[in-house]
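Let's practice the habit of predicting before peeking. Look at the sequence and jot down your guess about where helices and strands might fall. Then scroll down.
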Amino acid sequence: MHTPAEAIERTEAFIAAHPQGVISIVGPTGSGKTALSIAVGQALRSAAVISIDSRQIYQQLDVGTGKILPEEQRGLPHYGLSLLPVTKRWNAYTAQQYVLERISALQQAGTTPVLCGGTMLWSDAVTEGYVFAERGEKSLERQVPPFPVRKLITWWPREQLYERINERCQQMWAGGMLSECAWLMTQPVVDKAVITSIGYAEGMAYLRGLSTEHEARERFQQRSRHYAKRQLTWWRGRSDLEWVDMRGFSAKEKV
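Done guessing? Here is the structure:
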């Protein structure tokens, strides 16, 4: 376990030794991945952030997906955001190919790619070299990624993480997510991956009168906590991850 400052220092040393290296930041929802990606990117000579998030790819859905705002990007180029209309979807193979293409382009420009996101399969598809069949189905075969990669994972004690998640959900609910839900309800076609998403499903149920606001908010928080638990289970026991204790980061940082 390292502090963010220690993790950043070790990351700088890694890129100095491996100029074509890639940094991957994963972790449960609400744990500070975005804040750490900005800190890491700013510490490197030239860096850009590639989001690996299956919901942040959607246009018009900013608040409920926790999408970083332009003014919060601190001058770092960001990719993987607002790529698709809500009528479309990507699978892990599509995401993998997009990210690999961005990595290659950034490396050719002398820029370090910083991958950031909590979509487990998508992240591992890139950094673990998953091989996919013609229809996008994952096979058991893997290939060594064409770049060295350093993997960081954000950590909080469970009770503090759940408190952060509950607060984050409240902020999203009050900060414009319901307006995004109302907009979704006006669209003639919306992909199932969107309408069943955590937060949006609960918001639309409330707006349709299928639940009270209190019930919808509590369900949103509960599903978010359960998702964090699934994420941690996915990464538990991995020897290739460097755990970063995020308790030293400001609570005002974008999470």
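How did you do? The chain has two domains: 4-156+240-248, 159-228.
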